Every structure is written in structure tokens, then in C-alpha cells.
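Example A, followed by Example B.
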Amino acid sequence: MPPEEGSLTISGLHLSLLPFTKISFFTNSKEVQRSATALGYVAHAVSLVATYLEVPLRYPIFVGGSRSCIRDYAPSINPAAASASSVPLSLNLKPAEFPLFLDGQDTTRAAYAIFLLNKDLEQLLNFIGAQSLGPRHVLANLRELFRIILSPEYIDT
């Protein structure tokens, strides 16, 4: 069972997903900024681990601190329409970029970015033979990833 997500921190910052789900005009802007900073740290860690393990991430990360983004190369067109076209589907792919921060962004896009970041974490966990702790456990999944790759058993292989 994963630990309570609120009990985990990264560089002393709690990852509060509240700003991404219940944002309003009265939401504390400092809390939004702290969450963006924490997500930037997670994105940076995931990017570095993927590089060290030589795993190309399914959803590439643009590391920019508290303004980090994640890209999705899924087709934005109807596959049936693409098959009728003479242009190969691979040429129709344009990356969609999703912000890992909320300032000036749509909350749905930011929430989807967090989902994609967790999918990258899941990809790395699966690569080393571990299971994800679930889609709502970003910091717990990151902790599990580090626990395994820093273990003597993994290092000695």
C-alpha cells in the first residue's frame, strides 16, 4: 500500500494537487507556485533517471523548473481520415505540449500533464521490473523508483 501522498515531499515541498482540481480566483497563488516547483523537481528527476537508464520516455519532458512541460505525440486527427490520406500518419504527428504548472493555463491541461508525468514514472518502474503504485501517487512512485535503483541488488546487476 502506498504511503499517504500528503506525507511525502520533494526538496521540502509537498505536492498538492488541489490547485489543479479546485482552482478558483481565491486559490492561494503561493500554493499553486509551490506545486509547480515540486512538479518541476519531479520532472527533472524523471528526466535524469530516464537518461541514466537509457530509456526514451513515451512522453518527453521539457525541464524548465516550475515551468516544465510534457509532450504527447499522439495523433490529433481521426485515424480513419488519415488512412484515406496519401500522407503517412507519422508525418501528421504534431506534439501537444502540456504544462506542469497552472499559472495562465487550463486546469484540464495541467491535470493531464500530471497524468502523463505519472505514465512516464510508470514506464520507468516497469522497465526495472516494478509496478506503479497508481495514477494518483506521483511522489510515491518516484520514491519507489529511487528505492529500487539505489538498492544494492539493483546496482550490482
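Example B, a separate protein, is given below in the same form.
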Amino acid sequence: MTICIKRRARLQGLVILIACTATLACVQKPVVPSGAARVPINSDEMIQQYRERVKNDQRDKQERSLLTRQIDSLTQQVQELSAALTLMQLNQQELAKGKSRSSPTLTKAALTINSLSAESKGPLTSAPLSHNGDTSPAASDQSMSRTETAQNEEERSTRVGPACSAGPSASAAPFPSPPSSILEGQTNSWRPRVIELSEREQVELHRHSIIFRVSERTGRSEFRPSKPLQSHLKQIMSRGPCLHVRGYTDGDKDLWIERETAKQRTHKARAYLIAQGYDPNHIEITIVPIGHHVADNATKKGRAKNRRVEIEVKEQSPASIWPQWYG
């Protein structure tokens, strides 16, 4: 009996062992990929292609920037040539009408052509004029900073012919001397003062010169003095003194349009004087594209006064011609 019980216990243990072994054999094992068939996204070839594309894009951008600068420079050259051609046509018309007493002269500023370099963008100024129609070699073509140009613009004025250097014409009839009281007042306590001729015309009195000032409209360059001012200008033509014509704008930045406007105002005032019979050799010009304002440029009224043409009459004793202003 005891032997049977032992055999039955052994048989049950064997069955349990077989069942456990079968259960463990049925559990699935996790599959771990080896990575042998993996293809990398950023391969060496793709990285090299990307670097080539970046280099090409940078090269194209630099070429486009250079072309843009060259186009801007060429456009400015075309504008300068157009202005020079207009001036040549004006001089030819004067010569054809017999109103020019000397050969046509062109300012070097009108013929100056900016190079393709981006550095050559200094403001155009007036160039020396000689009596034989050639531009003086004393004019400088070097670029200047805007600040230096604004400060030295008046110093770089044009020259005139030998007739003006010699002073007023000897054949002109002298005006009577001013009263002694006027001369004494000028010597003892003299201060420049301004007289309003009209809303857009002024006269600035100095001891040895007088300045006629005519305001211009925005963007306009025609020179149309009033009848009183025409009378004053005709009054001095028989004496033939030296005249200094200056054209100004209300601009604060060195732009091509400011230089062109100041130049046109200067040349049209000069052309008016020549048309009235004044000797071109007695006229010097200065182009002032920016700065040298006479009024507050922040106000509309001030800008209107700064857009102007000035005709300075150089006389040893202007009080002898206009005693009514110097009294």
C-alpha cells in the first residue's frame, strides 16, 4: 500500500514538471533588430551636395548685389550726361542768337561722370571756368565727405575771366560819391542788414557788396525776378562789376536731385544775366547743393527762404549806387 502511494506521488510530480516546461516553451521571445540593413539619412554624399548648394547661393547673391550697384552707377551716369547735354544745347542756343560774347563754357561739374566705384558719390560742386572756354585743372575730382563738402562748398567757387579780375570797366561812368555821413556810418558801426523787396525777394547789404536773393519754388529752377529787381540789376550793368551767382536748395542730404536743382538754378540765373547783355567773363558761379541755410529749415517758411538764388554784386562802395538803402 505504501509503495503505491509513493509511485502516485512521483507520477504527479512528473506531470506537473511536464506542464511547467510546456508553458515556458510557449512564451514568445522579443525580436531585437540587428541594424545591418539600416540606411543613414545624412550620408556623406548628401552633406557634400548641401554644402555645394550653400556656396552657389552665396555666390549668386554677391553677383546680384554687384550688378545692382553697377546698374545704379550707370543710371546716375546717364542722368549726368543728360544734364550736360541740356547745358550744351543752352549754350549753343545762346551762341546762335549772338548773345554769348565768348565761347560757350561748361562747368566741370556738369561733365563729371561718376565711376562705377561705390565710393565716388561725393556732391558735385562748381568748377573753375576760364575765359577761353576750357575748364581749369584746379578743380578736384576726389570724393569728399558730406560734412567737408558742406563746409567748403563756398570756397570751391568758380573763377572768372581776366576782365573781372581787373575790376569794373574803366569806360563805365562813375556814380557820384555817397554823402560823408553815410561813409562815416559805415566805417564806425557797420552791420549787414536785410531789406525785404517782396515776399520772395530780399536784399542783403554789406560794406563792399550787396546780395540780391530770390526764393524758388519746390523743385523749380526758373529765374524770374520782379520788375523792381530787374531795374536794380540793370542799374549795375553799365558799371560791369563782378557778379557772384549762387544756387541753393533746402536739402539736408547729398542727393543727385539736390545737386542738379542747385546747378540748374545757378545756370538759369547766369543765362538771364547774359541775355540782358552782361559780360559772361564778369560772372562767377557756385553750386551749393546742401547746407548754408539762411532760415530755419525745419519750418515751411524757412525752407522757402533756403530754396534760393543769390546774386552778389562786388562793389567797393555800393552806397554810391543805392544810397536809399545805406542811408
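On Example B: The chain has ten helices and six strands.
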